[in-house]
Amino acid sequence: MRRFFYLACILFFATNLLAQDRAPHPELENPAIQGINKELPRASFVSYNNREVALQNNKLNSSQFISLNGTWKFKFVTGVSNRIKEFAAPNSDLSEWNEIKVPSNMEIEGYGYPIYTNVSYEFYPQWNFKPPYVNDLEKNNIGYYRRDLEIPQSWDGQQVFIHFGSIKSVGFVWVNGHKAGMSKDSKTPQEFDITKYIKPGRNSIAVEVFRWSDAAYLECQDFWRLSGIPREVYVYAQPKVRLRDFFAQCTLDDTYTDGIFDLDVELKNHTGNKVTQSVSYEILDDTGKTISSESKTIQINDSVGTVSFGTILPGVKAWNAEIPYLYTLLLTMKDASGKTTEATSIKIGFRTSEVKNGQYLVNGQPVLLKGVNLHEFNQINGQVVDEKDVMLDMERMKQLNINAIRLSHYPQPAFFYDLTDKYGFYIVDEANIESHGMGYDRAKGKSLANNLDWTEAHLFRTRNMFERDKNHPSVVIWSLGNEAGNGYNFYQTYLFIRSRDKNRPIQYEQAGHEWNTDIVCPMYAKPQHIEHYANNFTDRPLVLCEYEHAMGNSMGNLKDYWDIIEKYPNLQGGFIWDWVDQGLLDENEKGPFWAYGGDYGPAGTPSDGNFLINGVVFPDRSFKPHSYEVKHVYQNIGFEPENLENGQIQIKNKFFFTNLSKYNFSYTITANGKVVKTEKLPSMDVAPQQSKIVDIDLKGISARPGVEYFVTLSAKTSTADNLLPKGWEIASGQIKLPVEAPKVSIDMAKTGKVTCTEGTTIDINGKGFSLAIDAQSGVITSYKAKGRELLLNGFGPRPAFWRGTTDNDYGWG
After folding, report:
1. What is the pLDDT of residues 375-430, one digit of tens each?
2. Residues carrying an active site annotation
3. For the residues of 662-712, what is the DSSP string, one character each?
4. With contact defined as beta carbons under 8 Å apart, do 660 and 635 qualify?
5. Distance of CA 484 to the CA centre of its chain
6. Nearest to 131, CA basis, from 488, 457, 409, 410
7. CA gap 61, 262 in Å, rounded
8. Which CATH architecture group holds 355-399+406-601?
9. Which CATH homologous superfamily contains domain 635-736?
10. CATH code assigned to 23-43+55-235
11. Which of 266, 571, 695, 723 has the highest local Cβ count within 10 Å?
12. What is the pTM of this model?
C-alpha cells in the first residue's frame, strides 16, 4: 500500500510538472477557457460627447478615442522555455528590443516564416493531431509587444477600454504591469476594461502573443498561417453610465412597403448607485431630415438596464445591393439633469432577407447571388488590409458585376461592413470556425463539431460574430462556419443565432439537408447535380457556397452553371472560389515574384504549394483572362435574338430593383471584324425582370460571299454610379446576323489527285507532297513537300485526345 502511495505521489507531481512544461498559461491549450476578463461582444460603434460630432461619425474626431496603431517595441522568441517573464513591467529595459508596426503579421515582418497549408495543421508534421495540444511548444513562436500611451485628464472618472481588432492565435494583455485579460478568436474584437489599471498621464501596454494555441484547431482555413496583431488597436472612454450595446432591427412589412423599426438598447451602470437616464433615438434620411424619434427615461437599479423602442415608417426607402439606401440612426444618452453624457450614430437600412416558399428573397424578390469568396489578404502586408484595400476590391467587384461576398471563412474587419452597407453587396457573414484537419467523422474523438469539450469554443466565436455585425443591412445571411463537420456544436450555434435573429437565414455547408441550415449550400457540386436538386427538392433554395475553383486556366463552364441557375427558381447563385490569388510579393536574384506555399521555411516545412493561387484576380487585383468571363456571365442585362431577319433583338432586364433607363445603349455591326455601323439606341425604360424588343438598322448590310456579320450590343453607365465611372460598360452581347451569301463552290474534278495506300503505314500521296502515318500509333512519321522531308527522325505530330493539363487538374489529383 505504501509503495502504491509513493507511486501515486510520483505520478501526481510528474503530471503537474508536465502540465507546467506544456504551457506557460493553462489557458493556452484549454478550449473550455475562451477569454479572461474579456468584455461581452457588442455592436460596432464609437462613443461621442455630443449630437453634432456623433452625426459625423468619424472616430478620429472623438475625444473619447485614441488609436494605438503605429510603432511598438517588439521582442521575438521561439519556445516557451525562452519566455520573457518580466516583460510587462513598466520600467523593464527595452533597449535591446526591436520595433514593429501594428497592425501586422509577425512573419511578414521577418519574425518566423509564413506557412501555407490547406487542410492540415501546420504545427503537426504528420496527421496525428491531438487537440487541444499544439505539438512541440518549444517550436511555438511568441511575440512580445510594448508601447506607452498618454491618457488625458478628461478621461478621469470614466470607464476606459482597450480594443484589439484581432490577436492571432491568442494574446495576453497587461496594463501598467497588471494582467488585464486574454481572449481567443482571431477574427473578432477583443476588448478589456482597463479602468482600474490606468491613470491620467503615461501608461504602459504589453501583449504576449502565441502563434499557436488550442484556438488554432478552429482556424484551419485555406490560407497563409500567420500570427500577430493584424487589425487595429485603440483605447476608448465612456461615461460611468454607458451605452453597452444596441440591436436595431430594420425590416419591412408583408407588402415590402412600410419599414418596421425595433430597437433594443442596453445600458451599463458602473456607479454602484441607482441612476436615472434618458435614452433617445432619431432616424434621419440622407438629407439629414429627422423622420422618426422618441425618448424614454429609465432607472437602472443594478448594473444593467434595457430600453426598447418600436415604430412603423410608412413608405420607407428600402436597402438592397442595387440601390443601397441608408438612413442614419442617432442614439443620445442624457443624465437626470438633461445633460448629454454620450451619443453615437450608425447607418441602417430597411430590408427583408428570408426564405419563403422554397426561395431566398430580399425585399420579396428572388435575387440571384452572383458572388465570390473573399479572404483578408494584401500582397505586401499579408492578412492586414485597410480601407484602401477594401475599396479597391469593391471597385473591381462592381466592375465584374459581382453583387455578393461570402466572408471565407471568418468575419472581416469592422469597417468592411460599413462599406458593403454603403456600396451595396449581399454579405454572407461566416463564423471563424474551420476544423478541416480533424475531419467530419462524428464518432467520439473525431470531428470537433460533435465534441462537447469544444461546444463553448464554437458558441464563443458565433456570438462574437453575430453581436458585432447584427446591425448591418448588408449582412443578409449568417454562416455557421466552414468545413468543420456537423453535429451538436453546430446545432447549438444555429439555435443561438435563431434565438437572437428571427429574420435572416442561416446556412452551413456541412449541414447538407439537415435542419440547421435554411439554405442548402454545397461546394463544387457539378451543373448536373444542382439541376437534379432543382427538380427533386423544393423546400429550400440552393446556393453554391463554393464553385468554379478559379485556379490557373479555369472557369470555362461558368456559363453552363448559370444557364441552369437562371432556369430554376430554387437555384439562386453561388460564390466563386475565390476572389484573389494569395501570392505574397517577394523578390529574388531574378526579380520580383509572387510567393506561395513552400517558398518559405526550412526543408520539411508543411506546404500545399500553389493551391492558394486560385483567384478571379491576381494578388495586385489586376484582372485575369477569366475575370472577363465572370463579368459577362454575371451581367444583369441579356441580349437575345428575336426576329433577326427584321433586325429585332430582345433586351432583358435581369436586375431585381433597377430600371434600365439609367444606362446608355448602343450597337455596332461588323463585317469580318471591321466596323460598318455604330448607332445609339433610344432610352431604355425597362422595369426589373422585364424585356423590350429593339430594332437594329440593317440598311446597307448586304450579303457577300465569305463575309460574316455580327451585331454587338452594349450598355454603359450614363453617370458615375456606385463605384463605377461614367461610361463603364456593364453588359454586352454579340449575335451573328443572318446575312449570308452562298459559299463559292469548288469543282472537285479540277483539284489534284490524291492516293492512299494502307499497310504498316498509311501513305498519302498527292501533287508535290506525301504523308506517312504509323497505322498503330497514329504518329505522322514523314511529311514531304516537293521532295523535302519536313519531320526530323520521324518524330511528327501524334494524336492527343485530352487537352493540356491545368493547375486545377494538378490540384485535384
Report:
1. 999 999 999 999 999 999 999 999 999 999 999 999 999 999 999 999 999 999 99
2. 483, 546
3. GEEEEEEEEETTEEEEEEEPPP----TT-EEEEE---TT----TT--EEEE
4. no
5. 17
6. 457
7. 29
8. Alpha-Beta Barrel (3.20)
9. Immunoglobulins (2.60.40.10)
10. 2.60.120.260
11. 571
12. 0.92
